[in-house]
Design a protein that fits this description.
The chain has 96 residues and is mainly beta. The chain has a single domain, classed as OB fold (Dihydrolipoamide Acetyltransferase, E2P) (Beta Barrel). The chain is built from no helices and seven strands. Strands 1, 2, 3, 4, 5, 6 and 7 form a seven-stranded antiparallel sheet that branches. The mean pLDDT is 90.
């Protein structure tokens, strides 16, 4: 597998802790040692349930990545993310 780079779409498997409000749930994210809540209006979520969060890589450090997206904006260990789709830079037109 290739290395993860800026622009890639990655998934993080989080564990639901509890419902916080009618439209938000608190989740545990591997290697992210802070409380985090996401929008989730699913009526039947239960504590301990796994949920996939996807987002775009906005920064890569030696062993951590920052993932942005609708419910994200967090930095986690590289081992906590799984590549979903690799970003391919647009080809530049060469002048002939």
């Amino acid at each position: 597998m290739g290395s993860i780079k800026v622009g890639d779409t990655v998934a993080i498997t989080a564990t639901i802790r509890k419902r916080v409000t009618e439209d938000r749930v608190s989740v545990l994210i591997p290697s992210y040692h802070q409380p985090h809540s996401i929008v989730d209006t699913t009526p039947n979520v239960s504590s301990g349930q796994k949920i996939e969060l996807t987002g775009e890589v906005t920064r890569v450090d030696r062993d951590s990545v920052t993932v942005g997206g609708k419910d994200l904006g967090i930095t986690v260990n590289l081992s906590a993310v799984r590549l979903v789709t690799s970003h391919v830079a647009p080809k530049r037109k060469t002048s002939t």
